[in-house]
Please model this.
Amino acid sequence: MEVYIKDSLRIVEVWMTNGEQNDTELRQSLQLLYEKYKKKKYKVAVFESGHDDLLDSTAGLLLHNRKLI
Model:
């Protein structure tokens, strides 16, 4: 797991691997992180590794967003 704190944007990024996603202890430890930064009025974003093809998934997301506009 990697955590990046961007104070200028008031954002905390948490990057998790496939193996870490199923770790219940790790998930519980994130609750403390959420609480700490919620008090500071930061947004916490958790990014989880996927299993799908990145190019196909990104293209699908872009098409979906375009339809919404």
Remarks:
- The radius of gyration is 15 Å.
- Helices lie at 18-21, 24-39, 54-68.
- The first strand starts at residue 2 and ends at 6.
